[in-house]
Amino acid sequence: MKLWRPGITGKLFLAIFATCILLLVTMHWAVRISFERGFIDYIKRGNEQRLQMLSDALSDQYELHGNWRFLRNNDRFIFQILRSFERDDEDHPHPGGPGPEPGPGPGMPPHGWRTQFWVVDQQQQVLVGPRAPVPPDGTRRAITVDGQRVGEVIASPVERLTRNTDINFDRQQRRTSWLIVALATLLAALATFPLARGLLAPVKRLVEGTHKLAAGDFSTRVAASSQDELGRLAQDFNQLASTLERNQQMRRDLMADISHELRTPLAVLRGELEAIQDGVRKFTPESVNSLQAEVGTLTKLVDDLHQLSMSDEGALAYQKAPLNLIPLVDMAAGAFRERFASRGLTLRVLLSESATVFGDGDRLMQLFNNLLENSLRYTDSGGHLLVTASLSAESVTLDFADSAPGVSDEQLARLCERFWRAEGSRNRASGGSGLGLAICQNIVTAHNGTLRATHSPYGGVSIKVELPLDRDMPRDA
């Protein structure tokens, strides 16, 4: 038989409900004990006061009559005295309790009394009182006349007679208090269940969303209905789902772009080889050069993909050391001057004397070569590229700003995406593999820097590379 195992809602409900029940039962017993003790103390104080008043009244009557003959078998007389006390209580209520109660029935104590009482003479003979034996542990008040004890007023113990005489009242109080506990328990259950469901509703939404996310549905989102910890967790979940969805789309786009990039040079190679094989084109040095150019294009694409994958995984070997960045930029610019001149472009470099960073010279040289190659490919003939360096207290910023053509704001935001090129035709004669800036982004990130693209004041694109300066602090290579 399968055992029932409560879910998180049931567990939270049971925890809160059990806590409420424990508090209710504890409060019930505490109130009961406090009531019983307070009630007995109240009766005891009232009886002691009445005993003293009755003792004083009987002393006056004994002094007036000279003996106890007036009282023997005269319960009516004693009740008249007690009624006079009650009239006084009505005119001057006792500060600790209620006014007079209904008259006594057969065998019951007089008005205002919660216990039985006896009046005895000097020989302990009962003058007034019930037929029950006088309790030896009762409360006693002496009746004195001219300093002589002539009798006593004795009341039964409050603790004993309260349980006997007021048993109905005690039972009623117990029933009422347990009824209150039952009603409070029902109210606690009615309030706890929706409370538990309400508290766990965001958790359930997160659980359902996690199941969908684990199943591959990256479009799932959960509602963040609050600003507490669960609300922030829901926001983080939505951000994670958005990131996974974006990465999935990028992966699909990457596969589509790779297949497209490989298809074009392979189609050219196949066409060239089929033409030579069919005799349409002769096997000449010019045809060999054409085939080699396509193979070189494929090799460059594969190399770029390899570099990008290694930089994504952090597998590129970085041999970092303090180095001056300015000579590296000068060296990279010098290697490109002739190529820029052959395209009718002007390359200008305005750099500071020194900018020491903690980095890998080979990878930084690769970064500068890629940025220069990008400007060389996409700048119109007759234009120019200006490379500048600016220093701040903590970093150095290199700016590669070229002339027209420019790009739109939407294109500017996508410049560092893989396989994306701003020119419309995907012709490799003017465009590269579309991976250069993505590799540059990874190299800059590995050096704790930032790379961003903005509009150039000369009508083209400005690539800004910001790297932290080395301050002779210990670094991990």
From TrEMBL:
Enzyme Commission code: 2.7.13.3
Membrane-related topology note: Multi-pass membrane protein
Name this polypeptide is given: histidine kinase
Organism encoding this protein: Superficieibacter electus
Organism domain of life: Bacteria
High-level lineage: Bacteria, Pseudomonadati, Pseudomonadota, Gammaproteobacteria, Enterobacterales
HAMP domain residues: 197-249
Coiled coil: none
Keyword Transmembrane applies: yes
Catalysed reactions listed for this entry: ATP + protein L-histidine = ADP + protein N-phospho-L-histidine
